[in-house]
Amino acid sequence: MTASSLSLALDVRSATPMYLQVVQGLRTLIEQHAISEGAALPGERELAGQLGVSRVTVRQALRVLEEQGLVSRRHGSGTFVSPRRIVQPLSVLTGFSEDMRSRGLTPGGHVLSLERTRPSPQEAMNLTLGPAEEVVRLQRLRTADHEPLALETSTMPGRLLGTVGPGDVENTSLYAMLRARGFTPARAIQRLSARAADTEAARLLHVEMGSALLATERVTWDERGQVLEFARALYRGDRYDFIAELKH
How far apart are CA 161 and CA 172, in angstroms? Predict the structure, then answer.
C-alpha cells in the first residue's frame, strides 16, 4: 500500500465515530510502517474519495493525527507522515549512544565545547565537589542517523577522565568511557521540565524558535555511591516522549 492509494476497513454501523475510525486506521498504517516517514498523504478531497467518507471527516481525522504527532500539515504543501517519536523509558539507566544503538540508529555527538575548569555553584553542589576542584565540562549536539535530537552538557569530576580532547568524545559514549576507567554508572536521579527553544537551541536542533523542548537534569552515581556526572540536556519535543511505569 502506498500513501497515494489508501484503503481502510470502516464500519458505518459501529458506535465509534467515523473520523475516529479513520484516525485508528491511519495510525495503524503509520505505526506498522505501511506508510513511510515523510510520505505525503493524499489531499483531503482525494483521501475522502478513497475512503468513502466526507471531507469534514477526513479533516477531523487529520487534525487528531496532527495533535498526536503522527502527521504534520504544511500550509500550501499538504499533510506528511512525521518521523517516528523516540519513546524513552525513565526506569532504565542508559546513555544516549547506547539508547540510539538499541533502536538501530547511529548515534553522533558533535562537540560544541570542551573545557577543564572550576565548577559552577550548581555543578559543585550536584557533584559534591569543592569550589576549587576541577571538572570536565562537555557540550555536544547529539544526533541519530545525522538528525539533531538533543543538546547535552555533561560535567564530570576531572579526576575521573584524565586528559581528553574533542576527538576522544566526538562520537563516544561517556558511560562507556567511564566504565573503561573502572567507574560503572549504577543509578541516577533525573528531573524533567518544559522549555521553549531560544535562538541558539532552535538553530542547532533545526526547530522553530519557541518550539517545545524537554529539559532534563540528571545526577549519576556508580556502584560505590560516587557521583560520576551532572548532565543537563534539551530534547526535541516533537521527537521525544519520556514514559514512566507506575505501580500501586
Answer: 13
Count Cβ atoms below 10 Å from residue 176 Cβ, excluding itself: 13
Examine the fold and report which residue of 66, 81, 96 is the final residue of a domain before the chain moves on. 81
Report the alpha-carbon distance of residue 93 to residue 189 in Å, rounded.
10
What's the CATH number where 235 sits? 3.40.1410.10
**Last residue of one domain, picked from the residues 58, 81, 104:** 81
Give the whole-number percent of the chain exceeding pLDDT 70: 98
Question: How many domains does the chain fold into?
Answer: 2
DSSP category for residue 38: T
Output the furthest CA–CA distance in the chain (Å, rounded): 73
236/68: higher pLDDT? 236
The pLDDT score that the predictor gives to residue 222 is 95
